[in-house]
């Protein structure tokens, strides 16, 4: 089977799976963080789990860039920079700063996240740098890119500032959960998730690609049910 055929089959199946996951997560919150529970097999330290499961997205995408046929334009480098700006932070900076001493997460969750991030990095990176035919530098001045870049930046700011609020919520040795106050939490229960959904919606628009759309759908499928669970938790 040619890689292009495999790619499109994977993209379609991947998008359908997002819809299934979206429904399931309303009934069964992913078992990490405040929703950790037994029955999911061996566990590993929370910080190590975050690094191991998020790193593949940065690494696979960067590899697609390196082996791609369309990576010489400024636009190609802008997309690479935006992706790595998010995932280098998420994979290597956020877990180290995270106050999670004594916490753990199921290895099964880590393995599923590795699979997700690997496939997602491949679908987006391979499209942008091989199957798209390349983006000219003039793409940076088109309405889709400008709108997408604005949404990406806005979502990133909301996500990072909300992460900061959560980070400052507890002391260095605290591992419990409290209801955050201030910042964007004045208006919604999970602005960190909202920001990430906006961010990758901007990516989908800015790249104007089905791979980007699939990622935006997956982001909403993963985070919207969890945001709802957090809102219910805060009400109690």
Model description:
36% of the residues are buried. This protein has one domain. The protein has 236 residues and is an all-alpha fold. The longest helix is centred in the last third of the chain and has 26 residues. Helices cover 69% and strands 3% of the residues. The chain contains seven helices and two strands. It has a two-stranded antiparallel ribbon.
Secondary structure layout:
Blueprint lengths: L2 H25 L15 E3 H22 L6 H24 L6 E3 H25 L11 H25 L23 H17 L2 H26 L1
Antiparallel strand pairs: 1-2
Helix pairs in contact: 1-7, 2-3, 2-4, 5-6, 6-7
Rg estimate, integer Å: 18 Å
Number of helices: 7
Terminal Cα span: 53 Å
Largest sheet: 2 strands, antiparallel
Strand order of the largest sheet: 1-2
Which overall shape is indicated by the principal axes computed on the Cα atoms? Answer: globular
**Oligomeric composition of the shown chains:** single chain
Helix content: 55-70%
Strand % is under 5%
Summed over residues and divided by their number, the pLDDT gives a mean of 89
**β-strand number:** 2
Query: Order of SSEs, N→C?
Result: HEHHEHHHH
Q: Count up the domains.
A: 1
Low-confidence stretches: none
Structural class: mainly alpha
């Amino acid at each position: 089977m040619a890689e292009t055929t495999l790619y499109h089959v994977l993209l379609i199946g991947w998008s359908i799976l997002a819809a299934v996951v979206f429904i399931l997560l309303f009934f069964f919150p992913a078992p990490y963080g405040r929703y950790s529970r037994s029955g999911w097999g061996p566990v590993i330290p929370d910080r190590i789990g975050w690094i191991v499961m998020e790193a593949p997205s940065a690494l696979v995408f960067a590899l697609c860039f390196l082996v791609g046929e369309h990576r010489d334009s400024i636009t190609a480098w802008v997309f690479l920079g935006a992706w790595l700006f998010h995932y280098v932070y998420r994979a290597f900076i956020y877990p180290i700063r995270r106050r999670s001493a004594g916490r753990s997460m199921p290895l099964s969750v880590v393995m599923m996240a590795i699979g997700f991030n690997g496939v997602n990095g491949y679908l987006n990176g391979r499209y942008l740098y091989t199957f798209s035919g390349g983006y000219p530098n003039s793409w940076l001045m088109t309405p889709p890119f400008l709108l997408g870049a604005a949404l990406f930046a806005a979502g990133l700011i909301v996500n990072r500032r909300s992460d900061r609020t959560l980070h400052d919520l507890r002391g260095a040795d605290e591992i419990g959960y409290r209801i955050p106050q201030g910042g964007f939490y004045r208006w919604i229960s999970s602005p960190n998730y909202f920001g990430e959904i906006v961010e990758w919606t901007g990516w989908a628009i800015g790249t104007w690609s089905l791979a980007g759309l699939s990622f935006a759908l997956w982001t909403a499928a993963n985070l919207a049910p969890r945001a709802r669970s957090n809102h219910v938790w805060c009400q109690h």
